[in-house]
């Protein structure tokens, strides 16, 4: 019995360290994207900045809306699981439906990929490679297929 308790404590410590590392990497990636984005926007002139924001809205608005929908779906499933609602029975889902943890991973990766693509677009656009920047959303959408 003693060995099992020690094993559980060790496993919990490893899971906690793994979670801390994942959070640190995610926050670090967000910081890098934010820093590159801020420096690139500040490098642009006012007229270029307005055109850039318009084009970015056109390119990335559908992707951001889909990602937001997945985040909200995850919150919905999380609330169902916390309150004890059997959503699988309510919505007639099969035994292989996804939990809120799996949806959360999907939403997290979607957010990371979209923000990375937007940062690359912003960097290329602000450094004068407009044609290469314009191909960034297209390459992103093709890679999703």
What is the compact description of this entry?
The chain is mainly α.
Give a structural overview.
- With 145 residues, the protein is mainly alpha-helical.
- The chain has one domain.
- It has five helices and no strands.
- Helix 2 (46-83) runs antiparallel to helix 4 and helix 4 packs antiparallel against helix 5.
- The longest helix is centred in the N-terminal third of the chain and has 42 residues, at 2-43.
- The chain is extended, with a radius of gyration of 21 Å.
- The mean pLDDT is 80.
List keywords for this structure.
145 residues; mainly alpha; 5 helices
End-to-end gap: 51 Å
- Total number of helices: 5
The shape is: extended
Radius of gyration from the alpha-carbon trace, in angstroms: 21 Å
Number of strands: 0
The level of helicity is over 70%
Mean pLDDT over all positions? 80
Task: Give the uncertain stretches in residue-range form.
Answer: none
Order of helices and strands: HHHHH
Strand-residue proportion: under 5%
How many domains, in number, for the residues?
1
User: What structural category arises from helix and sheet content?
Assistant: mainly alpha
Draw up the topology in text.
Elements: H1 2-43, H2 46-83, H3 87-90, H4 100-126, H5 130-144
Helix pairs in contact: 1-4, 2-4, 4-5
């Amino acid at each position: 019995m003693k060995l099992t308790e020690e094993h559980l404590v060790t496993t919990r410590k490893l899971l906690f360290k793994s979670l801390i590392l994942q959070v640190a990497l995610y926050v670090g990636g967000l910081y890098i994207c934010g820093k590159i984005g801020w420096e690139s926007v500040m490098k642009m002139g006012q007229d270029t900045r307005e055109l850039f924001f318009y084009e970015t809205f056109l390119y990335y608005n559908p992707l951001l809306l889909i990602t937001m929908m997945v985040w909200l779906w995850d919150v919905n499933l999380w609330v169902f699981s916390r309150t004890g609602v059997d959503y699988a029975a309510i919505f007639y889902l099969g035994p292989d439906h996804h939990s809120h943890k799996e949806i959360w991973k999907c939403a997290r990766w979607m957010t990371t990929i979209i923000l990375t693509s937007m940062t690359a677009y912003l960097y290329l656009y602000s450094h004068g490679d407009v044609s290469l920047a314009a191909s960034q959303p297209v390459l992103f959408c093709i890679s999703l297929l």
